[in-house]
Amino acid sequence: MSNFFLQQFNVYMPDLLKLLAVLLVYFLLDLGAWYKTTLKPKFEAYIDAHTTAAQRSAFQANESLLKALGRAAYVYAENVYGTLGGPGKLAQALAYFQANMSRYGLTNLTPDVIRGSIEDAWRQDNPGKTPKVSAPATPPTTSSAASSVS
């Protein structure tokens, strides 16, 4: 009796997997549409209701500065330290960013935020690629970072 069920299960298994795959794709597409039509507008309305226009403007300005400085740090490291490997260039980019962030009023940024800004600039120049630097890059000491920026 159990052999009969196993044989039937083996016969219908490919069709069941196809059906599950189609249902999963449909669910994910529906989830994306739900996010766009339901969740995102509610989130944006909440942010608009709980922040002032000046706060939203300041946030957007800081975000623009963060992206611009991350881009500048990436380009600096690529041009000046192009012979170094990925971890070395990342360390130099981090040092450049940290040496210059206070000049633009960016304070209290975590190392992950700084690295993310630099990696975002890298991803824009290298679409479809994955960074090979997996370990956290440590910037050089402050004195060497300041002297390399000058």
How does this model look, in words?
By secondary structure, this protein is mainly alpha-helical. It folds into 2 domains: 50 residues; 97 residues. The chain is built from 5 helices and no strands. Helix 2 packs across helix 3 and helix 2 packs across helix 4.
Task: Give a brief outline of the structure.
The protein has 150 residues and is mainly α.
List keywords for this structure.
150 residues; mainly alpha; 2 domains; disordered C terminus
Strands, helices and their partners?
Blueprint lengths: L1 H49 L2 H28 L5 H15 L10 H15 L16 H8 L1
Helix pairs in contact: 2-3, 2-4, 3-4, 3-5
Pattern of helices and strands: HHHHH
Helix count from the secondary structure assignment: 5
The count of DSSP E runs of length 2 or more, i.e. the number of strands, is 0
User: Alpha-carbon distance between the termini?
Assistant: 82 Å
The number of domains: 2
Mean pLDDT: 79
Q: Biggest β-sheet: count, sense, barrel?
A: none
Principal-axis shape = flat
Low-pLDDT regions: 142-150
Helix content: over 70%
What does the radius of gyration come to? Answer: 24 Å
Strand content: under 5%
* Category from helices, strands and their pairing: mainly alpha
